[in-house]
Amino acid sequence: MASKNEAQAQWRPARLIPTAGLRTEKDREQRAVSALLAVAAGVPDFGKTIASELGGPRGRLETYVEVPLKDADGRTCYPDGVLLSTLGKKSLRILIEAKTGNDQLSKDQVTNYLDLARRHNFDGLLLITNDVLGGPDDIPIEVPKKALSGGVRLWQLSWWRILTWAIYQRYHQGIEDPEQAWILGELIHYLQHPGSGAAEFSDMGERWGEIRDAAKRDALRRNQASVTEIVQRWDNLVHYVSLDLAQHVGREVAPLPPKRNASRQEIETDHRDRLVDEGRLTATIRVPDTAGDLTVTAHLRSQQVVVATKIAAPEEGRAKTQINWLLRQLDENLPADTRIETRFARTSRTTAALLGEARDDPEVLLLHDDRKREPRAFEIGIAVSMGTARRANAKKSFIRSVRDHTMWFYENVLQDLREWRPAPPKVQRPTPLREGTRRDTPDFETHLHTPES
């Protein structure tokens, strides 16, 4: 017979926000919005984060769900929620419309709610969906310009980004009030549960297999609708992986655009060019205070995911010493087929070798005909087999292979790498004068500061 403790270990804990009874997508939307807004009001630090990210004051919050509002034709509409933030004379009043699961917003629905916001003196409309995009101003749907007249704003947040903020507040920044900390933890548990219909990016789309196979045959075209769809989903995946890293490290992590201030359209064009011309999807992710950025590349032709980073070489010392500086930083348990590439000063030539070879003979990473040529940078990369399934919960999931390998590389390689720093300058003592030599300057020693006794 099982002991009392063994039996009790199987009991399910009571939850503030249960997932039971969610039968339709509308049920999920209503519960997710209600839970989010209730916790935003009950945990002020968390609620103020949401308001401030939308440009509002970090003030007193009021939250409501399914508020009845009349449209231009006198019909009663019920937006999913309302959030009000007030601090002195500053305020933010927003309507909220949310989608969970695979439900998508329509242009007409968004346009109607923007008109409703303007008609009832709201500052704007916030969309909450499972589209994991760059930030509140990155909108997944185009609306007519006149819909944004009168100063009405349109924002978008993903459930995954909201979950990331909640995790940061709860586990990294900390909540002083234990009851508020518990409440925020319950929201985190709810959003992470598969039944909530919120949070994770989970599907590369129905055309993923088509694009993957066409890339192998070098048969992709820029004007294919399926290419555009996969490029957009790749951008979603990159932001999803970046936020996943942020949840673990407690810092802001974000993809780097191909050029500064690049628009979403320019970013998608860059992804499309690489996919069509080279058969690969690639992105660069920046984690604060690391020695280098993360480059994540899915090679559709070779069916590999490669995660790499590039760090600057030391600016002093012999060439072989610089190589050893790098090798000492790489964990001895890293795979022997970890690839290292060396770039050199004043030449476009490079060398490359596997980590196992470099440990046996560091000089394989030097220029073979100029072994004194100074390295200027090193690139470390590890390749794994690429999952092919479109969905995140599949056995050989593409999404999971990208997410898991990126996290593994960060934890086992990048977080332990350190940038080179020059040694601090040493105090220089003057050479003693020979006896009989004239001293034209005061004794150096008399000008050194010494501690008072």
Account of the protein in words:
The protein is α+β, with helices and mostly antiparallel strands. It folds into two domains: 25-196, no CATH class; 208-416, no CATH class. 35% of the residues lie in helices and 19% in strands. The chain has twelve helices and 14 strands. The strands form three sheets. It has a seven-stranded antiparallel β-sheet. Strand 10 and strand 11 form a beta hairpin. The longest helix has 25 residues, at 225-249. The protein is globular. The protein starts with a helix and ends in a 41-residue tail after the last helix. The model is unreliable at 444-448 (pLDDT under 50).
Mean pLDDT, rounded to whole units?
Answer: 91
How large a portion of the residues is in β-strands, by DSSP E? Answer: 15-25%
Number of strands: 14
Low-confidence stretches: 444-448
Strand order of the largest sheet: 8-9-10-11-14-12-13
Distance between the termini: 76 Å
Helix content: 25-40%
Task: Give the topology string: H per helix, E per strand.
Answer: HHHEEEEEHEEHHHHEHEEEHEEHEH
